[in-house]
Amino acid sequence: MRKNSTHYRSLALIFSERGFLPVWLAGLFINIAETALAITVTWTTWESSGSATGVGLVITALSLPRLILETFIGEVVDISSRRSLMIIGCFGTLLVSILLSVFSVAGFMHRGLLTVLVVLFLPVCSMLFHRARSSLLPKLFPDATTLLQVYSILSTTSEGMAFVGGGVALLISFLGASRVIFGVIVFALLATLFAGLVPDCDADRKQVRVRLPSRKTQSESLGKILQNRFLVWFVAVIALSNVPHKAINAMLIPLASSRFEAGAQGYGLMELALSLGAISSYLLSGALFAKKCPYRMTILGLAWSGVAVTLVPLSTNYAMIILLVTYGLSEGFFLPAYTRFSLAINDSSRGRAYALFNSIALVLSPIAQVGAGFVVDRFGVSALYTFSGFLLIVIAIAAWAFNPRLKKLPEGIVS
To answer: What is the model's pTM?
Structure first.
């Protein structure tokens, strides 16, 4: 009981910290807007084409700008006011939601090319907001245990928005895409307003500066990662495991359509199951994982998710929902390693280091998403989930074999 009360008091102190509440609220509303837009466009594509490959292409369109612009935005984050970048990201999402609302009312939502061209701008806005916020958090909370609890709160909020995503999937069948997208405009506007209330911690930086990536700056960021054995191991593990994870999440709609007569309702139920598992895991991570060994928790998360996904094709509909909750539980196991990664990088180069980390992790994502659609169209959704589960288990074994032999850290996750 004493540990639980201490944990709750620490959470209350975090919310009372200067600047955390507007950062949290801006993230809350922008996550609602992004989730609702992505699910509406993805479901509309599946409904109009019936092609899993088409769904993979749309999801790739949502992620491709992240891969192309990660390095550029990393440079911008390191030299610009991070509050200004957060405002720009929220305002851009507001513009995208307005454009998609116009397209939906005009009847253009089923024209894939036009929709993709607009949606390509959404990940860019999302990146500006989230990269700026990620770079700012370690400066606001330099203590490792506190920062992990902050990540736990933000991750719980982000995954809680997937409950909104499940609700959006249910609302589409009752209200239609046009009304759902119109509601997104309100949340994007609220996100923009709260982003403007974030304290300006970058008095030594200009509001917004643009600098093209150079070999020198990128080599500096890469060198900081290569000097740390744990960071090299963690980046490699995340890059490899991203392939099956992206494939699994990209093909939830075909899985729902193959299992449930009402596809949209089934998809919404599956999204809710994943979110429930992830939220539970993040809450446990903030309370229990602060002093756990990062590499052991990462390996456990990989093995846990691999076993759960492998059993999905063999299960009934009800058992599948339970397995998806179990799969979502693996998310929080990666937070200790990610917190260690965040604090290992200097504030002046954190944006570039995040960009390099995300670029490596995302480099195979488009192939995984489009390839997943091809496998489903050719061999069926059960084959995809079985193969993805086995691949996660293999990656967990390899991660254990090549781990950097870290010991438990008595002071927290960062010595």
So the answer is: 0.73
